TrEMBL record:
Annotated ranges, domain HAT C-terminal dimerisation: 82-138
Name used for this protein in its record: Repressor of the inhibitor of the protein kinase
Molecular-function GO terms, alphabetical: protein dimerization activity
Signal peptide coordinates: none
Gene name of the encoded protein: THAP12_0
Source species, domain of life: Eukaryota
Stored InterPro entries: HATC_C_dom, IFN-induced_PKR_regulator
Length: 174
């Protein structure tokens, strides 16, 4: 990986080295090199960039003492291990790692979904509504959305635009 990507692109990949299973297998020199790479790329998001190298060494030593490793996910690391007092910089980097897509599929899916919505709207809707629709379209399968509830709320907000008798309602408007 190091030979295929530039230093700038490698910094995204190097965030994965903060995962305990990976960092415990690295030498002190490798962790120092990792720290330099991450510091160059991410120092603008770190609360205390001057303390990052020592913090990274503490993180490695912490996990070497914790064998066997109990953290199973980045969110678990953030919740139980990456304390903002002892590991403020690592906490910020783990937050970034938690939201970065693992592969290009997630990013491509979100872009194609946004393109589909944008074509449908034909630039007639505000950006805020567009982003709300994009989130619903991308993650709608994870959250149960009741069309009847949406229609009822819309009718309550805009009684003149949509009368009680509609295709969704099934009533005759009496």
């Amino acid at each position: 990986m190091k030979s295929r990507f530039s230093q700038d692109k490698r910094a995204h990949y190097e965030l994965c080295a903060l995962i305990p299973e990976v960092i415990v297998k690295q030498s002190t020199a490798e962790v120092k090199e990792l720290g330099q790479c991450l510091l160059v790329k991410w120092n603008h998001v770190m609360p205390l960039p001057s303390a990052f190298q020592s913090e990274l060494q503490r993180w490695m030593n912490y996990w070497k003492r914790q064998l066997p490793i109990s953290a199973s996910s980045v969110t678990n690391l953030l919740t139980f291990h990456a304390d903002a007092t002892f590991f403020p910089n690592l906490r910020e980097l783990l937050k970034i790692l938690a939201v970065l897509p693992v592969g290009s599929v997630e990013a491509q899916r979100s872009f194609s979904c946004l393109r589909r919505i944008h074509n449908w709207l034909r630039n007639t809707m505000a950006t805020e509504k567009l982003s709300d629709l994009a989130v619903i379209a991308m993650h709608g399968h994870e959250v149960p959305i009741s069309r009847a509830d949406i229609c009822k709320r819309y009718m309550d907000l805009h009684p003149r635009r949509m009368m009680a008798s509609s295709l969704f309602d099934g009533r005759d408007g009496d």
